[in-house]
């Protein structure tokens, strides 16, 4: 009897496995570049703190209003790709993370406690003021790597800018207080 039950169980498992045939294959492709650059944000290092100006809550009196736009300049220097100067388009990719409102692509205020501002997010924009949806690389613009002027110069550079600003979220009034958030970025060479 045990042999019959075991054979029946194995047969059933084989039938169940064969009943779920595959419908296709998804192939993923990508690339890892050898490009490397020295990165400075607002003249400092690759990791930076950007201080926005203090603004009045009256400047954020309706949903969707913005205030306090502050420039973020990326300077890339000494960019190389193998034995040659890196060339082509380059931009920052602002990565989705714990601080990002997935629906809007804006940065949530991570300041906490009674001193935290309410109903305010931070919004990143391109240099032409078009909105960046954090986590969506297609919404981000950048610059072009330019090779050095000297003959045989194997290094290139680029400068491009973005801005961050306060954004009034929701229908409730803005509550005065501190605003803080952060975003991780990667430089994307195209």
Automatic annotation (TrEMBL):
InterPro entries: Adhesion_dom_fimbrial_sf, Adhesion_dom_sf, Bact_Fimbrial_Adh_Pro, FimA-like. It is found in: Fimbrium. Keywords: Fimbrium, Signal. It holds the Pfam family FimA. Residues 1-21 form the signal peptide. SUPFAM superfamilies: Bacterial adhesins. Belongs to the fimbrial protein family. This is Type 1 fimbrial protein.
């Amino acid at each position: 009897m045990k042999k019959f039950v075991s054979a029946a169980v194995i047969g059933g498992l084989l039938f169940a496995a064969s009943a779920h045939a595959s419908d296709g294959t998804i192939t993923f492709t990508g690339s890892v570049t050898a490009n490397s650059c020295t990165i400075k944000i607002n003249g400092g290092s690759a990791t930076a703190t950007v201080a926005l100006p203090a603004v009045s809550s009256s400047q954020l009196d309706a949903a969707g209003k913005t205030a306090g736009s502050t420039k973020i300049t990326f300077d890339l220097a000494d960019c190389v790709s193998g034995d040659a100067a890196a060339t082509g388009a380059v931009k920052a990719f602002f990565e989705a993370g714990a601080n990002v409102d997935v629906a809007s692509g804006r940065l949530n205020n991570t300041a906490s406690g009674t001193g935290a501002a309410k109903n305010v997010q931070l919004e990143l924009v391109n240099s032409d003021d078009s909105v960046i949806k954090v986590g969506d690389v297609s919404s981000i613009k950048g610059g072009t790597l330019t090779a050095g002027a000297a003959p045989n110069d194997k290094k290139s550079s680029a400068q491009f800018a973005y801005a961050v600003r306060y954004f009034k979220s929701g229908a409730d009034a803005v509550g005065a207080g501190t605003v803080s958030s952060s975003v991780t970025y990667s430089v994307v060479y195209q």
